[in-house]
Amino acid sequence: MSCRDLLFVLGLLIGIIGFTTAGHADIYKYVDEEGVIHLTNVPTDSNIPYVLLIKEKRVHFSPNISQNITKYDSLIMQSCEKYKMDPALIKAVIKAESNFNHQAVSPKGARGLMQLMPATASALQVQDAFHPQSNVEGGVRYLRYLLKLFKGDIQLALAAYNAGEGAVLRYGDIPPFQETRIYVQRVMNYLDRYRMNQ
Length: 198
Description:
Layout: H1 3-22, E1 27-31, E2 37-40, E3 51-54, H2 73-83, H3 87-98, H4 118-123, H5 132-149, H6 154-163, H7 165-171, H8 178-196
Antiparallel strand pairs: 1-2, 1-3
């Protein structure tokens, strides 16, 4: 193999690696009895031996970056009074979702303080998901809808906020996704903290 061919192969491999990591989504695979390869980002069947191929790059909030957790209190109170929601719950969701960074964008494309996906923001008529007031009001309305859907069960509503209402309805409980279970527990911990400080 010539030096030029070797460089081409190396470049191709780097490109493939860059492509597979650019999406930052967990990808699982399993091979069925007929040898067919199945790929999914949501392994829903616990009886299937899924293998993790690509690990999503998680959003990490640096402990060295101090966010002002009271900066949006007036916006939160305004939306919560309008829709009869618990401000401590909304604050807990914002803390878990964006760490009070109104410009936050997740690897999956969720935006703003309450990390609204573009389709959700559109359905809620939120024209600018980075606008703090619009984002908070949209997120409060969506969480209120989920609480009504799940008859006031905060943990199920939070699971639906994270994994989608379809997943919660399908399982009839918090879905068995590690990310979702950790998310619900994290928000509940923040909720306890903010309720104590009210």
